[in-house]
Design a protein that fits this description.
InterPro entries: FliD, FliD_C, FliD_N. It is found in: Secreted; Bacterial flagellum. This is Flagellar hook-associated protein 2. The chain has 3 domains: about 240 residues; about 80 residues, no CATH class; about 120 residues, no CATH class. A hairpin with a 2-residue loop joins strand 8 and strand 9. It contains 9 helices and 18 strands. Helix 2 packs antiparallel against helix 4, helix 4 runs antiparallel to helix 5 and helix 5 runs antiparallel to helix 8. The strands form 5 sheets. A 5-stranded antiparallel sheet has the order 1-16-3-12-13, with no helix packed on it. The chain is α+β, with helices and mostly antiparallel strands. The longest helix is centred in the last third of the chain and has 64 residues.
Length: about 475
């Protein structure tokens, strides 16, 4: 008889609910093991969740600080007294403390602009097939005409116009497709259409254009009477503290180390003051935000590693992170700092409380910022100082071999092992249930037989007593 069929008839002989009895005996046999596995599973789930939270906290903390320092907002910024003439921007990693100079923009850089004669048929005017040759160099210009030209070292560029009925628009498209350093547009008005050519900025970007057959009427250069030089190619002329220099563009990165100067307009004789603005307020706010965020991260790690109730109380990576955070305020952030100059967070008013959290002495920070502005700024340099120190802590903490990354893998494997254990116990439980069911079925059958014999004997005895 199958176990299921047996179970349905259990107790018919003895009168005992053997199915319930077997279930109770089996449950009690595995109760401690099942409870232990449940507790272990709950603990592992908490550990995995806690590790994930701490990893995210420390990584986000380090990333936020790195983003802040890379933005340049915690570094001395250059200033211009007249942004209508020139603007100035700090380049990444530059130290502009103490910057002070005067600048005069005497001339802006510009490219050569030329225009062809007007074609009454508009942009659809047929100008030929043929070949155009573009040559770059330097030129002299007077009254809209090119009076002299010296070719540069670059090889002249040929532009072939294959279409037998090439229009002015076709020529402009062919020039632009060549990407040779000159852009072409069509300017149309009531008199017709003209081909307008413009080069990049700088005196060396002057150009001539020669053409064969019908394209010759588009020629640009000395003796090309049909075309007009609307703007001559020229360099920017800028004087720094009275010393003039020339640049081919209006965006200059080599004049003041660590700064980009963007020329807006020329104003001969106007002196623009270039200075520096210390990020005092920005650093003060950054330090306050750092302390606040640190405390949140620290408390989370501290609670997780609590020796009594912490889910990560035995996790070496979590405990290592706690110790690294505690050492952060005393770590030297500016290697080789001069004597008495601040080089650690503790030097600028960041104090460690008895419970391990931080607090900020704003008066101390303000005084240090006033006395050692450049030294404090170095502590918040991009990819260095506090940014590097915190990034190093985060890298060690989240390491996949020795840090919390390894802890996460360990707990995940333990969960897999736990699932295997649960599967095995479930199988063992079913085996015991089947075995005990069969044993009690046999017992129940014997009880039924005994009852049958008992009934027969009772009937015989009752019969004998009745006859007597």
């Amino acid at each position: 008889m199958a176990v299921e069929s047996i179970a349905k008839t259990l107790g018919t002989g003895s009168g005992i609910d053997i199915t319930a009895l077997v279930q109770s005996l089996v449950d009690n046999s595995f109760a401690n093991k099942n409870q232990a596995l449940t507790n272990k599973g709950t603990a592992l789930t908490t550990q995995i969740s806690t590790v994930g939270t701490i990893k995210s906290n420390i990584s986000d903390f380090a990333s936020a600080l790195a983003s802040l320092t890379s933005s340049g907002s915690l570094a001395t910024q250059p200033t211009s007294s007249n942004t209508g003439i020139l603007g100035i921007t700090r380049l990444s990693g530059a130290d502009l403390t103490g910057l002070s100079a005067t600048m005069e923009v005497r001339q802006l850089a510009q490219g050569q602009v030329s225009s062809s004669p007007s074609f009454g048929g508009g942009s659809g005017s047929v100008v030929g097939p043929g070949k155009l040759t573009l040559t770059f160099g330097t030129a002299t210009v007077a009254d809209g005409a090119m009076t002299g030209f010296t070719a540069g070292t670059a090889t002249p560029i040929d532009i072939t116009i294959d279409s037998p009925n090439a229009t002015l628009s076709d020529v402009a498209a062919a020039i632009n497709a060549k990407k040779a350093g000159v852009t072409a547009t069509i300017l149309s008005d009531s008199n017709g259409a003209r081909l307008v050519l413009k080069s990049g900025t700088g005196s060396s970007q002057a150009f001539t254009l020669s053409g064969t057959d019908g394209l010759a009427q588009l020629a640009v250069g000395p003796g090309a009477g049909g075309s007009t030089i609307n703007a001559a190619a020229q360099d920017a002329r800028v004087a720094l503290d009275g010393v003039e220099a020339k640049y081919p563009t209006n965006s200059i990165t080599t004049m003041i180390p660590g700064a980009r100067i963007d020329l807006v307009s020329a104003s001969v004789g106007t002196k623009v003051m270039i200075g520096a603005s210390a990020p005092t307020s920005a650093i003060s706010q950054a330090v306050a935000n750092f302390v606040e965020t640190y405390n949140q991260v620290f408390k989370a790690v501290q609670e997780a590693t609590d020796p009594i109730n912490g889910p990560l109380k035995s996790d070496p990576a979590a405990k290592q992170l706690l110790q690294q955070l505690k050492r952060l305020t005393l770590s030297a952030l500016v290697p080789g700092a001069s004597k008495n100059a601040p080089s650690a967070l503790a030097d600028i008013g960041v104090k460690t409380n008895r419970d391990g959290t931080l607090s900020l002495d704003t008066a101390r920070l303000s005084k240090v910022l006033t006395t050692y502005p450049s030294d404090v700024e170095k502590m918040f340099t991009e990819n260095a100082g506090l940014t590097k120190a915190l990034s190093d802590v985060a890298a060690i903490a989240t390491n996949s071999k020795t840090g919390l990354g390894a802890s996460a893998d360990k707990y995940a494997k333990a969960q897999d092992d736990l699932a295997d254990e649960k599967t095995k116990i479930a199988a063992d439980t079913q085996k015991m249930r089947d075995r005990m069911t069969q044993q009690f079925a046999a017992m129940d059958a014997k009880v039924a037989a005994y009852k049958s014999t008992q009934t027969f004997l009772k009937q015989q005895i009752d019969s004998w007593n009745a006859k007597s």
